[in-house]
Amino acid sequence: MRPRIKTNKICSSKNYKESKKVYARALERWHEEHKEEIEVISASISVKRTKYISVFGKLIPVSEEELKVHETLITWNT
Asked: What's the pTM?
């Protein structure tokens, strides 16, 4: 079972500024250690903007032709 609470605190009221700096440095270090993996994932993912229309709370993809008819109800999802 995974732990629910992290063992190291990110910040506390006593040393908020210092904790924020420590967390930022830890995050930068993590990114440096995993730089190659991040680049591979970033290169392999392509994001396409898809057009959707909201019908009774559900998002339904629409084509370019349908977009002209229903353009007031469009919700963009990236």
From this structure: 0.40
Residue 45's SS3 state is coil
| Token representation of residue 67 | 């977009």
Q: What is the DSSP letter of 58?
A: E
Q: Report pLDDT digits (tens) over 16-74.
A: 788 788 888 999 999 999 999 989 988 888 877 777 777 888 888 888 787 777 666 55
Helix, strand, coil shares of the chain, percent, nearest 5, are 45, 20, 35
User: Is the CB of residue 19 less than 8 Å from the CB of residue 10?
Assistant: yes
DSSP state of 72: G
